[in-house]
Amino acid sequence: MATPEVPQHPPAPQELLAPLSNQEVKERVLALAQPADQALTANLTSHVPFIEEVSGYIIFSGGKRLRPVLFLLASRALGRMAEPRHAAIFEYLHAATLLHDDVVDDAGLRRGRPAARVKYGNDAVILVGDFLFSKSYSLSVEVPDLRFVRALTDCTTHMAEGQVLELIHTDDLELGHQGYLRVIVAKTAVLLAAACQMGAIQAGASDETVRAFYDYGMELGVAFQMVDDALDYVGSEHEFGKPVGHDLEEGKITLPFIHARDHASPEMRARLLELARRGRQEPQVLTEAKEIIRAQGGVEATVAWANFHAARAQAALKPLLDGGQANPDLLTMLGLASYVITRRA
Amino acid sequence: MATPEVPQHPPAPQELLAPLSNQEVKERVLALAQPADQALTANLTSHVPFIEEVSGYIIFSGGKRLRPVLFLLASRALGRMAEPRHAAIFEYLHAATLLHDDVVDDAGLRRGRPAARVKYGNDAVILVGDFLFSKSYSLSVEVPDLRFVRALTDCTTHMAEGQVLELIHTDDLELGHQGYLRVIVAKTAVLLAAACQMGAIQAGASDETVRAFYDYGMELGVAFQMVDDALDYVGSEHEFGKPVGHDLEEGKITLPFIHARDHASPEMRARLLELARRGRQEPQVLTEAKEIIRAQGGVEATVAWANFHAARAQAALKPLLDGGQANPDLLTMLGLASYVITRRA
What we know:
Chain A is mainly α. Chain A has helices at residues 22-43, 49-59, 66-77, 84-105, 116-120, 122-140, 146-168, 177-202, 207-231, 237-240, 255-263, 266-279, 286-295, 298-317, 328-342, and strands spanning 109-110, 113-114.
């Protein structure tokens, strides 16, 4: 399925529905994270104890379980709650990509502690990533609807292409808004989309409804990643549990940079590009680059775009709202879209 | 499914059926490798041209297409030739594991030229490996029989566990015959088994027949890998297109070593273990270790075991032979089992 389109002009501010407080959204998500968590433990079995150890290290390091929760929410919203064991598909897949990403990025920290590759070695985490990938598929073929596993193959193919795209665009200071969107769709949004889509499939939904849930997850994922990329320019390491302000150090060109570059005066733009180019050798010059990005409103513009996509996520589900009777799971999903915009870390 | 059992005693010499000459086997395999090759090119499309380049580099570097050929042979032997596009599943998966293996092993050469990771970097080959893995799955869900994709998930999970096992047993000088078998089943045999099994599934075979084809592929794969491991102690780099005699350098404990260790006099055994231990720091001492292994008959014993498994491969298919009318594809499969024993490289 396609990457969301980028409108020609920056989005006008859009009011988001906020049917629930952030606190309520959090509580409802946590309530579903618990069965998901139990399923993650129960299914993480291998004939090779070392695999369980490495997998456990990455999986039980405090993730928010957003992907399994979305899967369960989507299925329950459609009246047929999925088995938590199948929710594990999405967390295993997410963990597999994190393991491989950390090798690709030479990451030292992940969620505030040494990355698995630091503790167990690149060799082990590549192979355990492959194992978790296969484990996701093993679980998915238990659902006797070929649409289910087909959605997963579309998702993982798209994700793998996206990881390669991101690698290619490392240090690509010319990357535009559309190219950036392609990267974040593949690295983040497509898995959230698949979680919602597959929740709907396993509830036996029509193709049209399945599509609406896919679109919701896709737009939510884009909003989520954009907020993450904005926070990278403002958050603190303490809040995040991972180093912040490092996207530029790693050559990751994200929307705050793109916005600043494209809206600065010619002199400022030239200065920003020069600093970014020098930054790989002299990281200290990036402090000035980041100041320029903030001064040009790169952070606010990125959050505005995130807001635009969150509104589209809500719009995808609105037709399913029954005016009379509120479906609590649909409300939670709508609430999540406003939550991602207002969250801090 | 289970790893083949190891009999208590070394196998008695077993006569292999040789219904075809090696030359005939080769010709028949080549005839099927051609459509498989075309399918490999036709399906290797991505939105990201760089992915096609890296994938093409590993896939079109002169592999023998044994896995796709086995899939096509199995399906045609059962009267319903599979589409060559689905034969690509097995070569993509094989290529994905080679890409990841080369990173894990720090390999410099593959099939006589620089390994893909040397040319494109570890980052790229990890991610392109993930892409090829997903591509295999995408193709497999086109076959509208859930047994088909389920067989693939069993296979890849088993393979990933096996790669981790091999990593754990690196430098494990105590590894026994059964442990060695577990490793080679997972790293080689299980994919050959899946190719035969899935060929049978896609021909609509009964579970019993599917199982016979699985067993054939499993035993063939074990025989194939054992011969490879024996040749590592005798072949030349020229014959092989990859460095030989390097298993021990890399800490890979294979059957020739295990046999020599377990059949040598106590003094010789102690000497062999000492040399193997020192070998990681002082590779030159491994020349003597290899001489001991050869002198203890490690190579011949390994080939004898390979012969034993090749005979079991043939035994799995024999019940399917119709006494009167010879099925040319079954004969080719029987012939392949004797071919792997007598091949050189």
